[in-house]
Amino acid sequence: MAKPQSTPHTKETNRNSEDLLGEVEVRPGQMESISLGMYEQGMPEPTLIVELEPDMPDTVNGSLIRLDKDDHYTLVYQVQNFGDVTCQVRVWSE
């Protein structure tokens, strides 16, 4: 399974919007999911970059979930905010 990487929050001006797999706003004490797409079995999982705004790696946790079916799999990124500030989470493919 691909290991998601958390990056420090910086405005990346060179990111291509086509590489954005999904984004979600996570309120304090809440959990949200981002569907990252469906892939054919045998295709490698994309390398992921997770961006938090504001950068709160100590209070926002995420995990990548792979749901396998016969001929494909779906990737979902679940995020939980244990802090007291709303956070915007974006997941990019590298």
Strand content: over 45%
Low-pLDDT runs of 5+ residues are: 1-13
Distance between the termini: 15 Å
- In which range does the helix fraction lie? under 10%
Strand tally is 7
CA-based shape: globular
Structural class: mainly beta
For the CA atoms, what is the radius of gyration? Answer: 13 Å
Strand order of the largest sheet: 1-4-7-2
**Count of DSSP H/I helices:** 0
Helix-strand pattern: EEEEEEE
Assembly of the depicted chains = single chain
- Taking all residues together, what is the mean pLDDT? 86
- How can the largest sheet be summarized? 4 strands, mixed
Characterization of this structure:
- The protein has 94 residues and is mainly beta.
- Helix content is 0%, strand content 55%.
- It is built from no helices and seven strands.
- It has a four-stranded mixed β-sheet, with no helix packed on it. Strands 3-6-5 form a three-stranded antiparallel β-sheet, with no helix packed on it.
- The two termini are 15 Å apart.
Brief overview:
With 94 residues, this protein is mostly beta strands. Helix content is 0%, strand content 55%. The protein has no helices and 7 strands.
In terms of topology, how is this protein built?
Layout: E1 5-7, E2 20-26, E3 31-40, E4 48-53, E5 60-68, E6 72-81, E7 87-93
Parallel strand pairs: 1-4
Antiparallel strand pairs: 2-7, 3-6, 4-7, 5-6
